Give the backbone structure.
Amino acid sequence: MANSKLSNLSNYFIKYGFVLNDALIYNGLENTFVYGPLFLAIKTIIKQKWIQEFITNKNCVLIESPIITNPDVYLGSKHLKQFKDCFIDCKNCKKRFRSDENNSKISSCQFCKSEEITNPRNFQLMFEVNKDKFKSEKVFYLRPETAQGIFINYKEIGFVNNLKLPFGIGQIGKSFRNEINLNNFLFRLREFEQMELEYFFEYQNLNQVEQLFSQFENLVLNFLTSFGLKKENILLKNVEKNDLAHYAQKTTDFEFKFRFGTFELCGLSYRKDFDLLNHQEFSKKKLYYLNSKNEKIIPHVIEPSIGIERLILAIIDSNLTFENNRYLLNIPFAIAPFQIAILPLVKKLNEPAIKIFNSLKNEFRCTFQDKKSIGKRYYYQDAIGTFFAICFDYDSLVDFKVTIRIRNNKEQKRILISEIKNFINKFING
C-alpha cells in the first residue's frame, strides 16, 4: 500500500506533531509512534462519541479487561490455531510482505519487483510475551482483540449488572498484532486501540439477524459520517465466505476512499455463538444465559469493531488540503483539536489576552499562542484545524473589541469581547 500520497500524509502528521516517531534517541522502532496532544484530543472526542452512540441508554455497559490473560483463552477462541496471515519473503531485497491468498498468484516482490520470492507461508499474528517457567510452561500473549475479554466474562458481567437479553458489553482498549508489513503508517500497527461492542441476543431466525445486522450497519455508518466523512466515500462490502475471519458467520467491511486508495476502515460481524460455544467446550464451564422465559440459551453475537487510529487517519485525510504552499485542515468544529486560538498581536498584550483565554477554556477547547508573527500563527492554526482565531491588538485596549478570524473562509470580524461566546455559538449552531 505504501505510496507517495500516504507518505505525504504521514509527513503532515509528523510535521505538526499529531504523531512523533518513538525513541529517536535510540534510533526508534519501525512504525512505533507517540501520539501528540492534537492526535490525543481527537482520540478522546471519538471515544466519548462512541460511548454516547453505542453504550449510553441502549442496555449496554462498558468494561475494561486485562491485556494479558490466561493463554488458554486463545486456545478456546481458536486464535492460536486460526489467527494467522500469509506472507512472502523476497530473496533479493530481503523484505517481507503479505499475501492475501495462500497460492502462487503473486509472481514478484511488491517492493523491488524481483521474481526471487519464497512460496507463501503462514505467519502467527499473536504477540508472544514470555514463558512463565516458574509456574508453568504456558506461553503468554498480548491480546489480539478486546472481544475475548468480554466473551469469557460476559455471564458474570450480565448477572451483576442485572442485564436482560438483548444486551451489549463494550470495551475500548489496546490490541496487538504481530504484523508482517509495517510500511503503512497508522493504517497497520503492532499496537492499536479498538472500540468494540459485543451485542448478545437470543437467536430466533435469520430474518431477525438480518434486521438487527442492518440496524447496526446504519448505526456504524451514522457514527462515521458524524465526523465529517462523506457517505459517498464509504463503501459497504459484504465479505466473501472464504475471506471471513474464523469466528465470523457474516461480515460487512466499511471501506473508505483514502487519497492513497480504498481500504477497510472498520467492520461489523455476526459471530453467531462461535465464541461462547468454543469457550464452553474448552473450559468445561457452562456459559448459558437465561432468557425471558428462564430458559438456558447460548446467545448469538453481533460485533461492530472500530480502530481509532485508522478512523483518525480517515478524518484527517478527508479534510486536509494543500494549496498555495499551505495546509488547511477543514475538520468539523465538534472534533477540532483546538476550536479557538487566542493570539495577542504582540507579547506586551499577553495579560488581557490571557483573560479572554481563561473565560473561554472551560466551554471550548482553546490554545494560547504568542510566538512568531500573527500571519504565521494564523497559517499554523489553519494547518492544525483550529476553527476560530481571536487576535487581541492595541485597539482592543480602547474599544474592547477583538478580531475573530474564521478558518474556512478566512473572513475576519471585529466584535466586542463580551460577545465572543454568543458569536461562536450562533455561528456554529447556524
